[in-house]
Amino acid sequence: MKVEVFSHRDGRGWSIPAFPALDGNQTLVLVFGGARKVESLPLDTLVSGYPHAHVMGCSTAGEILGQSIVDDSLAVAICRFDGTPLRSSSKRLESAMDSFLVGTSIAQELLAADLRGVFVLSDGTKVNGSELVRGLNRVLPPEVLVTGGLAGDGDRFTKTWVLDHGKPTRGCVSAIGFYGDRIVFGHGSKGGWDVFGPERIVTRSWGNVLFEIDGLSALDLYKRYLGDLASGLPANALLFPLRLRRKKTDTRGLVRTILSIDEKVSSMTFAGDIPEGSLVQFMRANPDRLVDGAAEAARSSRNKQESAQESLAIAISCVGRRLVLAERAEEEIEAVGGALPASQLIGFYSYGELSPCSDERCDLHNQTMTLTTLSET
Predict the structure, then answer these.
(1) Alpha helices in the chain (DSSP H)
(2) Nearest to residue 87, comparing CAs of 178, 159, 12?
């Protein structure tokens, strides 16, 4: 396995003199870029430079390369596997209602007896991430690891893209499957947020659209908690996500964050489902705990690949973490790099993260640092 990472920045060009000569049908090209780079000559040049490779990528709320965070750049990883066959699939979403069927369709295309893992990138504004994951999990066996993330658009929440056959495309979900016995995965996903206020019951919702909590307008309740920050919705909602428990017996909560609001019907749309009858609680940031959570996620992924000679670490962190950490955001990236000193690090800030919790099935998360490590034996 051979890994190279590099970048392109406006005014500076490529960070390397020539693209690595690693093209082939067992090569993965990962590209994370600014949402406004839809029309990008450097992106076209990169894609055309690897005609036989599997090219994946998406727009971001910030690109991660090494221990740096950059906006409106292209962060690139080229990973050529020695003994791991790859297969890719992509589907279009007309609306969030297609999410489950798109998940099942992609999983069916990738399913095989020797499938070991799937990495997924999805449009960040038109998808219901919970339903996408439910579709993937419906088809794929429990032993197949599924990780990935939802594309970003800075703090604008308007348009995101995912590469489909090398072209930035709205409403797209793409995935790549890894096959055979030589691939080694590691994964970790941690938050670091604190809950506050009472736990409340969702009394009216539809999929990922929330209308009422405890019989009251959820949007009005949210605005009351945000106070003066309510004028900055939906972006400021990233500072106060919801902790979700589907039932009282759940010991583990999921984090949900807002994608958009509708003042006319007093609703909030989340990246994943908010089922009626579930329990929700407001959360707020603790910067030190966010950084510690990133380091813990990295250590969890390292434990499963620490013997690898060469490895790639893909970091997907929620845009809300970046907004909260502000000038301290690079601290969480440095914490990840410190826990994975032997890995080449690439990633992006997202609108949602896909990962198992511990050894459970994949689920949609918000406001986490999620790590996927790839290596070969």
Answers:
(1) 41-48, 99-110, 129-139, 218-226, 287-302, 319-325, 329-339
(2) 178
Let me know whether 321 and 240 are in one domain. no
Q: What is the largest distance, in Å, between two alpha-carbon atoms of the chain?
A: 61
Q: Alpha helix locations (H) across 267-307?
A: 287-302
Q: Are residues 245 and 324 in the same domain?
A: no
Domain enclosing residue 218, as ranges:
193-284
How does residue 310 score in pLDDT terms, banded at 50, 70 and 90?
Answer: confident
Strands 200-206 and 279-285: antiparallel
- Residue 247 phi/psi, 5-degree rounding, is -150, 165
Residue with tokens 């813990």: 296
Q: Do residues 120 and 27 lie in contact, with contact meaning Cβ atoms separated by under 8 Å?
A: no
Domain end position, chosen among 254, 284, 314: 284
Q: What is the pLDDT of residues 6-16, one digit of tens each?
A: 999 998 999 99
- Cα(283)–Cα(267) distance, rounded to whole angstroms? 19
Q: List, for residues 149-158, the tens digit of each pLDDT value.
A: 999 998 888 8
The whole-number average pLDDT for the span 342-367 is 90
Rounded to whole angstroms, the Cα distance separating 370 from 116 reads 19
> Across all residues in the chain, what is the average pLDDT?
92
- Residue 337 tokens, joined: 């790099």
Helix (H) or strand (E) holding 362: strand 362-365
Q: Three-state SS across 352-377?
A: EEEEECCCCCEEEECCCEEEEEEEEC
Tokens 């489950």 map to which residue?
Answer: 100
φ/ψ (deg, to 5) at 358: 60, -125
Residue 283, strand partner residues = 195
Give pLDDT, residue 284: 85
